[in-house]
Specification:
9 helices; globular; mainly alpha; Serine Threonine Protein Phosphatase 5, Tetratricopeptide repeat; 3-stranded antiparallel beta sheet
Length: about 200
């Protein structure tokens, strides 16, 4: 039996689901034929989180582009993130930055944080720690835990801003309180070291 894994995406929450589609099987062996039939009948069609009908990844990307072109900030962020990661699209940091910028300019915290990461690493833009810090801060002030963690690191290391251990600890606590694992680990190390 040959099984092809296919990616399906929820158009509402953007969660990816891996579905199984049976491409071929040896019909001469009855148990294999029956198991192939069972697998094809169990193909995922709805999002487990939202209950919304799933789209194939290709159809999702078409819809995403349409909504991003229409100026929807979440669609712009999701498209930028897919270009950044190479999920369903060829990885392209320049395209990622283009779409993340459009979304970040509309105030979406997730886009601001991801764009900040692009600036901190020099992905698709010239590396600029000050710009990264500014974007992380905008996102952190909206309560995004990963951005709060990155602001903490920026204050601790002096990347894009002056070193400030007190502010670093303040932002680290905020991130950890939201359950961000890296922040919780760093906070534990801090407490172990300083008591």
């Amino acid at each position: 039996m040959k099984v092809k894994k296919e990616i399906y995406v929820c158009p509402k929450c953007a969660r990816e689901h891996e579905g199984l589609m049976v491409m071929s099987f040896n019909s001469g062996i009855k148990p294999m034929a029956e198991s192939a039939k069972q697998i094809s009948q169990q193909k995922i069609t709805k999002c487990g989180k939202c209950g919304v009908e799933l789209l194939t990844e290709a159809d999702y990307i078409k819809e995403l582009k349409k909504h991003a072109d229409a100026g929807e900030k979440k669609a712009q962020h999701n498209l930028g993130y897919r270009y950044f990661k190479g999920n369903g699209l060829k990885q392209d940091y320049n395209e990622a930055v283009k779409w993340l910028t459009k979304s970040a300019e509309q105030g979406l915290a997730e886009a601001q944080s991801q764009l900040g990461f692009c600036y901190s690493m020099g992905h698709g833009v010239e590396q600029d720690h000050k710009k990264a810090f500014e974007l992380y801060l905008k996102s952190a002030e909206q309560g995004l835990a990963v951005a709060q963690y990155n602001i903490s690191k920026s204050y601790y290391e002096g990347n894009g801003t002056d070193k400030n251990p007190e502010k670093a600890l303040e932002w680290l606590k905020k991130s950890a309180e939201q359950g961000y694992e890296k922040a919780a680990e760093q906070l534990k190390k801090h407490k172990d070291h300083f008591g």
